[in-house]
Design goal:
By secondary structure, the protein is of the alpha+beta class. It contains 24 helices and 18 strands. The strands form five sheets. The protein has a six-stranded antiparallel sheet. A five-stranded antiparallel sheet has the order 11-10-13-14-16, with no helix packed on it. The two termini are 21 Å apart.
């Protein structure tokens, strides 16, 4: 079941408000007394001392602290804890470029680990001695690669890889050894119980659209190309390899897309297949790509920036792979006047239709520019029923100028052919001289066995009779067992929750476990499961509304929403929201109405009045915020995967009115 973020906030609130009309809800497990906004430290006023922040980062840090809400105290703690000037400067750079919703979610100890270990290796490894500061700040120091959850992984990867890479003398060998450690077949450890299957630590298996974190990836041992990219970048940055995510939205010469890694070697970027220690198979397709992108936090000065989103940049990396052509497009109306603020779409044919590999918004002169690969592309633009389109052929090293004159209902008719260079043509005429594999010959893998937490036994019912005994009498026992087996090394978290939950709530827990998707199963924690079951039951037990069991399971007990990473939110949200809505919306209002419809309407009105929708939040490094983090920042990203459904502000009640009948 999938929902937008606004729905998550609203439903999360509604399951907490079915109680007394005046008093905040108390919980059956003796939860904490509700806290008000004033009881949490705030750093949003003008009196915050930023003298510890280098001048060049001061404005960005100040803005981040404002957006972070009460989590700003965690960010200030980082600046106050670090005493070494270069570490504090790195902290200021990170804090000033943190993506939303990291500003609300990240904790000081996690950020401190990333900063301290990044500077430890900066001053230790010889290949980092002459690294440009811009390269270090943008491609070693950051802890995030895409939309994976925040995690403290740097110490683990450093301790595992330092004995290996300390034998290396250059970045190329380091990059290769990291890839061997992740992607080469690993030896089984010296154990008597036979654990260890000889497979690589991480391999490709198509899974889900949501990005998983590097440590969760190790627990499962597989994921899609995005996860292969993420785990490699996290591991490589932990030992001083500057690297970044790269991808093509859609291939120009075949269906599908792909994501991989670029590593910075000898002053230029080279392609590498994450967890694939061999020559990058995608190098040939990339020579004929319409566009290749990379991403980083901040705005590096030495890159060709495609667009900026919030505090992050999307870099046009196409010139790293192929000769390119600059395309200039002007859009005019019937009177030849410039058409501003309209979208120009650059598309290839992929999966049976035209797919955009770039979109640009016309400026004040009605113009856009884009650097693309070599081939033929379908360009289109329009506003309302006025449109224009054209197939354009790019040529290496040229600048192509096009004028679109909008006409009513202009649309293609008949056949359209898009032609691209052959592979031989691309290899001989269009490939950039620097496009070579990051390494040319294999090195001997000398890595040690990983720690025991990543050599796991699959859940075996015969060996865990204590857990099996707690499932007796449950009709869906087989489904629970299957989910435990598929959870990789994370099955112990589920078993812990099964053991600790009160017996009368165990069926609800079993239901949740069986509904978990693959990524949820390897990320879920005992804390999250207990928080979900206990507080959903707490709300239901005191509600005046009689909600059918199937509706309760689907819309209240259901712990997950589209692309939301696992994190407990119900307990804290119950303490945070009730005092705020009672005091902030209208002290005299009867928030706890006699009907669920009126309560939903009151909550909707409070959210509309107090949660600010910001179009500059989101982007490559931003995931869906939890309802608790949204409440902390009082901000909601409108772009990327952080949608605010129209009905949150416009339609009273739980979703569409018909769902309330």
């Amino acid at each position: 079941m999938k929902y937008g973020l606004g729905a998550l906030l609203l439903v999360g609130i509604l399951v907490l408000t079915g109680c007394s009309k005046t008093a905040p809800m108390l919980h059956r497990d003796g939860g904490p007394a509700p806290i008000t906004a004033e009881t949490k430290p705030s750093v949003q006023d003008e009196s915050v001392d930023l003298s510890l922040v280098p001048v060049e980062y001061r404005d960005q840090v100040k803005e981040s602290l404002k957006l972070a809400g009460d989590n700003g105290s965690e960010l200030l703690k980082v600046l106050q804890t670090l005493t070494i000037p270069e570490e504090r400067a790195g902290a200021a750079f990170l804090i000033g470029t943190l993506p939303y919703p990291d500003l609300a979610a990240i904790k000081a100890d996690v950020l401190l680990e990333h900063i301290r270990y990044a500077y430890l290796i900066k001053n230790k490894y010889p290949w980092m001695k002459n690294m440009p500061e811009e390269t270090f700040l943008h491609y070693v120091l950051p802890y995030r690669c895409a939309e994976e959850p925040i995690s403290a992984y740097r110490r683990y990867f450093y301790e595992q890889l330092d004995p290996i890479v300390s034998q290396c003398t250059n970045l190329s060998d380091v990059a290769h050894q990291v890839n061997l450690w992740l992607g080469a077949p690993k030896p089984a450890p010296s154990r008597t119980d036979g654990v260890g299957n000889g497979k690589q630590r991480f391999r490709f298996v198509q899974t889900e659209a949501r990005d998983q974190g590097p440590l969760a990836s190790l627990k499962s041992g597989y994921g899609r190309c995005e996860e292969m990219m993420i785990i490699y970048i996290c591991a490589a940055r932990s030992v001083g390899v500057p690297c970044r995510s790269s991808w093509t939205p859609y291939w120009a010469i075949c269906d599908n897309n792909h994501a991989w890694v670029e590593v910075w070697i000898s002053g230029s970027w080279k392609p590498l297949g994450g967890c694939e220690p061999g020559a990058p198979w995608f190098a040939d397709p990339a020579k004929r790509a319409a566009a290749v992108y990379s991403a980083t936090i901040g705005k590096p000065q030495s890159e060709l920036i495609h667009k900026t989103i919030g505090n992050s940049s999307i870099i046009n990396s196409t010139p790293n792979y192929s000769k390119t052509c600059r395309v200039k497009v002007s859009v005019v109306d019937a009177d030849n006047k410039p058409v501003t603020d309209t979208t120009v779409v650059f598309a290839v044919f992929n999966w049976g239709s035209f797919r955009p590999f770039a979109t640009k918004i016309t400026d004040g002169q009605g113009q856009v520019e884009f650097v693309t690969g070599i081939g033929e592309y379908f360009l289109s633009t329009g506003r309302n029923d006025m449109r224009a389109w054209q197939v354009v052929k790019t040529e290496p090293g040229k600048t192509l100028e096009i004028t679109f004159k909008l006409a009513k209902n202009a649309a293609p008719d008949g056949f359209i052919f898009l032609r691209y260079p052959t592979l031989d043509q691309a290899r001989t005429s269009f490939t950039t001289p620097g496009l070579t594999p990051v390494y040319t010959s294999p090195l001997t893998p000398t890595y040690p066995a990983p720690p025991e937490i990543y050599f796991y036994e699959e859940f075996n019912p015969a060996l865990h009779s204590d857990v099996m005994a707690l499932m007796e009498g449950y009709a869906g026992k087989d489904a629970v067992v299957q989910k435990l087996k598929s959870a990789g090394g994370n099955w112990t978290e589920m078993a812990g929750a099964i053991t600790e939950i009160r017996p009368e709530l165990r069926p609800d827990l079993f239901h949740i476990i069986t509904q978990l998707a693959h990524l949820e199963a390897i990320e879920v924690t005992k804390e999250f499961l207990l928080d979900t079951v206990i507080y959903a039951d707490s709300a239901r037990s005191r509600s005046k509304w009689q909600i059918p069991d199937d509706i309760h399971k689907a819309y209240v007990l259901n712990p997950q929403f589209e692309y939301l990473h696992i994190s407990p939110w119900r307990k804290e949200l119950s303490g945070r929201f009730l005092p705020i809505i009672i005091a902030g919306y209208n002290p005299d209002a009867k928030i706890h109405s006699d009907t669920i419809t009126d309560t939903a309407r009151a909550v909707n009105e409070w959210v509309a009045a107090n949660i600010k929708v910001r179009g500059d939040l989101g982007g490559r490094f931003s995931y869906v915020a939890s309802p608790l983090d949204t409440l902390k920042t009082q901000s909601l990203g409108k772009g990327g995967r952080q949608p605010l459904p129209e009905w949150l502000l416009a339609v009273p009640g739980l979703g569409r009115p018909e769902t309330l009948r």
